[in-house]
C-alpha cells in the first residue's frame, strides 16, 4: 500500500504519517527513511525532536538521495515512512554532494522504482511531503524550477497512491482511498 501525506509546514503531517506506519506495522519494526541533511542548528533540533518521538520499534535509514537503496533494506511486508519528499526533491535537483544532481526525469524515475519495489514486496510505504502552494512563489527561476518539480512529483504520486491525505492543523483529510 502506498500512502501520500501532504500538508503545510509544521501542520502535523509527520505525526499523522508515523501513526499510519505504526498501525500498519503492528508489533513489527517500523522503518524510517530520513532524507534530511543536518546543516544548521534549527535542522538539528527538528531531527532530534523527530527521533525522540520515534523511540522503540523504529529503525532509521538515512538516505538524502538514494531512497531506492534504503527501501531495498526494508524486509518484505513491513511498513516504512519516507520523510520527506520535499527535502529529497531539493537534493535531486541541486545535489546533496557535488556532481549528484539529476534531471527531473531521473528523479521521477527513481521515485517510480521505489514505488514499484514497495508494491512488489508488499510494503506499506507512507511518503510525507510539504504542500508548497500555501506560500507565494518567489520570482527566482531556480525556485520556480523546484516548485514545478515538487508539484509534478505530487501529482504523479497522488495518481499512484492508494491513499492521499492532506494534514491541516494536525487533522488528516483523506482525499483518496
TrEMBL record:
It comes from the Bacteria. The keyword Nucleotide-binding applies. GO terms for biological process: cobalamin biosynthetic process. Its EC number is 2.7.1.156, 2.7.7.62. Pathway: Cofactor biosynthesis; adenosylcobalamin biosynthesis; adenosylcobalamin from cob(II)yrinate a,c-diamide: step 6/7; Cofactor biosynthesis; adenosylcobalamin biosynthesis; adenosylcobalamin from cob(II)yrinate a,c-diamide: step 5/7. One of its GO terms (molecular function) is cobinamide phosphate guanylyltransferase activity. Keywords: ATP-binding, Cobalamin biosynthesis, GTP-binding, Kinase, Nucleotide-binding, Nucleotidyltransferase, Transferase. InterPro entries: CobU/CobP, P-loop_NTPase. GTP binds at residues 7-14, 34-36, 62, 83. It catalyses: adenosylcob(III)inamide + ATP = adenosylcob(III)inamide phosphate + ADP + H(+); adenosylcob(III)inamide + GTP = adenosylcob(III)inamide phosphate + GDP + H(+); adenosylcob(III)inamide phosphate + GTP + H(+) = adenosylcob(III)inamide-GDP + diphosphate. The active site is at residue 50. Catalyzes ATP-dependent phosphorylation of adenosylcobinamide and addition of GMP to adenosylcobinamide phosphate. Belongs to the CobU/CobP family. PANTHER family: BIFUNCTIONAL ADENOSYLCOBALAMIN BIOSYNTHESIS PROTEIN COBU, PTHR34848. This is Bifunctional adenosylcobalamin biosynthesis protein.
